[in-house]
Amino acid sequence: MIATPVWNQATFEGLISRRGTSMKASTIRELLKITQHPDVISFAGGLPAPELFPLADISAAFERVMAHYGPAAMQYSTTEGHAPLREWIAERHSIAPQNVQIMTGSQQGLDLLGKILINEGDVVLVESPTYLGALQSFQPYLPQYLPMPTDDQGIDVMALDKLLANHKGKAPKVLYTIPNFQNPTGITLSLERREQLLDLTLRRGILILEDDPYGQLRFTGKGLPSLFELALKRTGDIEKVNVVYCSSFSKVLVPGMRDAWVEAATPIILKLIQAKQGADLHTPTVTQMMVTELLPDVLPRQIETVRRAYGQRAQHMIAQMKQFFPQSAQYTVPEGGMFLWVTLPRTANTAELLPRAVARKVAYVPGTPFFALGGGEHTMRLSYSSATPEQITTGIQALGDTLRDVLE
Fold first, then answer.
1. 174 and 81, same structural domain?
2. pLDDT tens sequence across 265-313
3. Quick one: average pLDDT of 115-129?
4. Which residues lie below 8 Å from residue 53, measured CB to CB, with a gap of 6+?
5. Same domain, 158 and 273
6. Which of 167, 305, 321, 329 gives 20 to 30 Å between its CA and that of 100?
7. What DSSP line would sit under 234-287, residue for residue?
8. Which ranges of 81-219 does DSSP label H, i.e. alpha helix?
9. Residue 220 exposure: Cα atoms within 13 Å on the Cβ side
């Protein structure tokens, strides 16, 4: 008699692949579960401010789309994306629409780029710290991470060159970076270093993945060209550009519509199309059409609204930190985006401090998950985007009291 297998937890766990086993839950998503209590002021999630969403304009756009397109708005569509939307995106960089791929959120773009580019054991250069969601997207493809040295101007390219010269392992294949108002630090890569980074990666044959969800959210200082724009200016031909550009409408319109895109040379786009066909066939037709309706008038107004609000909130948070944080706490001063980064004395552990902060009705993200190889126990990320000035005042005072308990 053949024994009948007993299906239990161990049986199911034994079926999970190496890729599946390597997946980890998002620290931020898990943290948000414990900060949902209405009394907790959360500086944890990088959430756009919901009170700024242009809801009336979105409703009107939906009505126009349904009146114009009818059933086609609810039908399957092409994998590449809604043609008028791709044309608008392409025009911004004077490239062909065929070099634009619409994604269901920028996270899907990172996931599918990881799928088509990263073999097991490939070396991926990442900032230290870097965006947690990128690490989560790339990890199932089993890369080796090589953290890049950074400072208050972003990637230290000269130090990176020395690091690569002394690197004994496999040559790096991909470099992932957020040059504008980086998540989690809020730091911006200087123009000089952007040029240096292009020189270095071209010399060493490294592909840059440029993640730019916050680039239009500058509220102080002078805007800088993207790495993609600089590379395109050098070559005049997208087919010779070693930068893949990723961006999204989530931070400048609304995140729930999940519309993002990738701009790249044809071989990358063709593989992304194939990967997306296997993932979800296409991004929802109706949301792409709605975004296209919002581009001429609503998007520019919305960007200005968000810039102004986030600039005021960032300025207010920094003023409160100057007043209530211990002097030993250092922090970045962003020129845009949604985040700033706090560095405490190395004796502090922000993961261990978090329960004390939550007891005082305030939450943040401990820094360790943003480091590909661990570390950063004395750091934390704060987001000012979705908190009101009143909440910022109350929350920063409570967080300052928490820090003083252990640092003074």
1. yes
2. 999 999 999 999 999 999 999 999 999 999 999 999 999 999 999 999 9
3. 97
4. 254
5. yes
6. 305
7. HHS-GGG--EEEEEESTTTS-STT--EEEE--HHHHHHHHHHHHHHTSSS-HHH
8. 83-92, 106-117, 132-138, 157-166, 191-204
9. 13
